[in-house]
Specification:
The chain is built from 13 helices and 25 strands. Helix 1 packs antiparallel against helix 13. The longest helix has 36 residues. The radius of gyration is 30 Å and the shape is globular.
């Protein structure tokens, strides 16, 4: 009997040891296979390590070899950033990732003008184009009311995706931002933010002083944002001559200032009137409270330019009371498409009445009903029937306000701005902007699992069950012995 007990104990120990070894081997195999074939699941809330469909659409367009350099050093290297970049190479055979230690390679730092660790450089040798994504752009944090970091937003995928698109493009869009009339873009902080936003969308961005410069021949778009001072006759002629050549302009009004000369030109040439008023809405569903007042949430109208944003239920915001209404007179030579309006309970107020409404005093509305906030027009110039001039007018520069075009926002102001620039420039099927990724508590984790669920079941459930049953069997046999 003792021999039988010894035999069963040895037998049980041997089986247990074999099972443990099998579990270890399976884990090793799955680790190697997971690393070899990228069998991973991203469990971050913002999907930081998962390439978006928008990025994949861009990468599907890549037919030329691209090198992405990750410039850092051993101490500063961010494994999370490296993981995101590796996903670009894993998705496209045309992309190669190279780590560069700029402490050991000062020539690279000088050649590519790298100023800080964790900078990313995207380069396409075939086109000769490259873009440098400074580390200061990659991740930004916002503070809560107590002054501590609440969320961290990662822009790496967004910037790299745009840089890839830019590097393979033979003719990227040239966008010029107007200054010289007290535009909001004369604020350095806002100008930097707006330029970075357009830069991240694979566009070439420059500043244009219309008071002293001519509009360049290669300008795909002129963006005029919230001017305070009126345009002179000479400056208006520059814009009109640009339209005669098929030019494209986006104009965002500053509701606090009247521009009689420019407004007269828009009315005469485009049949557009920017009203000197303040727009609000009596339907509370189209208003949202904020720390700086109330947001007016416009209604999006169906058009070729906005159909994608409409399909996904996108929402926009401008500042209530700091928005002009727009009126367009029907003209057979001008095709006009209304893009954004108030609800049917929208109201137009004088500034005095807006102040009364805002302070909850009795007020009188000068116009009731749907108010147009943004409109897109195109026409054939009088002296150039072979081309088409395009003009977008928005009743508020708040559509471009730096906090509003933050891609981490739930609102789609940035998407509409980018989509409209591409659409007006003839790139109607331009990839939709890649959103930033939110990183909670600045932690990024990736969970590696087997590709085949059955293997996971074996590891997590089947083997423990088998061990338990075997243990019961051995226990019963021992009792009988």
């Amino acid at each position: 009997m003792n021999n039988n007990k010894i035999k069963f104990k040895a037998y049980g120990a041997a089986i247990t040891a074999l099972v443990i070894v099998a579990v270890i081997l399976l884990n090793v195999i799955f680790g190697v296979v997971g690393k070899r074939y990228n069998l991973k699941v991203d469990i971050t809330k913002g999907g930081v390590f998962t390439l978006s469909n928008e990025t994949k659409n861009v990468l599907d367009m890549v037919k030329k070899d691209i090198t992405i350099y990750y410039a850092t050093n051993a101490d500063s290297r961010n494994t999370g950033y490296a993981e995101i970049l590796d996903n670009f190479a894993k998705y496209s055979k045309h992309i190669t990732i190279k780590d560069v230690n700029i402490d050991l390679d000062p020539n690279f730092k000088k050649t590519y003008q790298v100023e800080s660790y964790n900078t990313v450089v995207v380069e396409c040798p075939n086109t000769g184009k490259k873009r440098v994504i400074d580390s200061s752009l990659i991740e930004q944090s916002s503070n809560n009311s107590k002054g501590t970091v609440a969320t961290s937003v990662n822009y790496l995928e967004s910037y790299v995706s745009a840089a890839v698109l830019y590097s393979i493009s033979s003719d990227p869009l040239d966008v010029y931002i107007s200054v010289g009339h007290g535009e909001i873009t004369e604020n350095t902080t806002f100008l930097d933010h707006l330029m970075s936003m357009l830069y991240s969308e694979a566009m070439s961005v420059r500043v244009l002083d219309l008071t002293a410069e001519q509009i360049p021949e290669n300008a795909d778009m002129i963006l005029i944002a919230g001017p305070k001072m009126d345009f002179t006759a000479d400056e208006i002629k520059k814009v009109d001559d640009y339209f005669e050549k098929g030019g494209r302009v986006q104009f965002y009004s500053n509701p606090a200032y009247s521009l009689p000369n420019l407004n007269a030109y828009l009315n005469d040439s485009w049949k557009i009137q920017i009203n000197n008023d303040c727009v609000s809405d009596d339907d509370g569903k189209y208003l949202a409270k904020s720390s700086i007042g109330s947001y007016l949430l416009p209604v999006i109208k169906e058009s070729d330019m906005t159909k994608y944003l409409s399909a996904i239920g996108a929402k926009f915001r401008v500042q209530e009371g700091e928005t002009n209404s727009i009126k367009v007179t029907e003209n057979k030579n001008i095709q006009a498409n209304v893009l954004l309006t108030t609800s049917e309970k929208g109201i137009s107020l004088t500034r005095d009445n807006w102040v009364k409404k805002n302070s909850r005093q009795s007020y009188v509305a000068q116009n009731n009903g749907e108010q147009t906030i943004m409109i897109y027009c195109k026409k054939n110039p009088l002296n150039n029937e072979s081309t088409t001039a395009r003009l977008l007018v928005c009743g508020s520069y708040y559509m471009l306000y730096d906090n509003f075009i933050d891609p981490s926002s739930n609102y789609a102001d940035k998407d509409l701005v980018v989509k409209s620039i591409n659409y007006m420039s003839g790139i109607e099927d331009a990839p939709v902007s890649v959103a930033s990724k939110q990183v909670l508590n600045e932690q990024m984790k990736v969970l590696e699992i087997p590709k085949l669920v059955s293997y996971g079941v074996i590891l997590v459930a089947a083997i423990p069950v088998i061990l338990f049953i075997w243990g019961v069997y051995v226990y019963i046999r021992r009792k009988r012995l």
